[in-house]
Amino acid sequence: MAVWRWLGRVPFATTAREQERLRADVLSGQAPETLLLCEHHPVVTLGRSADPAHVLAPRAELARRGVDVQPASRGGDVTYHGPGQLVGYPIVRLRGGVLGHVTAMARAIAAVLGELGIDARWRRDVPGLWVGDNSKICAFGVHVHRRVAIHGFALNVASALDGFDLIVPCGLQAVRTTSVAHLLGPGRSPPALHLLAARVAGALGRELDVTFVPQIDSPALSGISAVEMSERITRMIQA
Fold first, then answer.
1. Three-class SS of residue 10?
2. How far apart are the C-alpha atoms of 108 and 184, rounded to whole Å?
3. Which helix (H) or strand (E) holds 146?
4. Helix (H, G, I), strand (E, B) or coil at 109
5. Domain edges within the chain
6. Which residues contact 218 (CB under 8 A, 6 or more apart)?
7. How confident is the model over 11-62, as pLDDT tens digits?
8. Active site residues per annotation
9. For the domain 2-238, what is the CATH code?
């Protein structure tokens, strides 16, 4: 049995360390496969093939705006994470190839978006979920060691899209970023992240062939009490 956890808003570096720890434990048989779902404080992350020129704002300006810069072991170029974005990290054994793993994640998230009336399509030439010709709503990136993957996806739900002006997203010069909130328009609000996380966990389980059950997370990682986390999990199950 695999588990999933809602962490709330946490620093990127915290989840990077936790993913590596969990992968080691999965490989040694000391932990189940795990899906971490969260949002991050503002951060620009640099993948293994990142071009530093794709960070458009000087470091001093990023610091002034409270935006951290962190290296990431995932593949890909430069991306941005911030509040209002649902980020998922499945620490799971590959059932097939890397491309199959990524496209399974894409199918899951596209299905959840479809329930909200948003038609998002996977594109292999410019990996991600796209709405229309050039509006990207979800980015993907993974790192695999001994056939256990970490990292995953970043779905723009209620993200402040001006954060992406700080970078060339994924190294794509002509890309526009969009969000669930932007596409729903005035008068319609996207689901709260913790509720959407529960729906995504179910969809990912189906597509990745993993049964994820909710688990109360460690307060040391999430920064909140076990009581509050239990209440969050209860609300998700009852939603």
1. strand
2. 19
3. none
4. helix
5. 2-238
6. none
7. 999 999 999 999 999 999 999 999 999 999 999 999 998 888 999 999 999 9
8. 170
9. 3.30.930.10
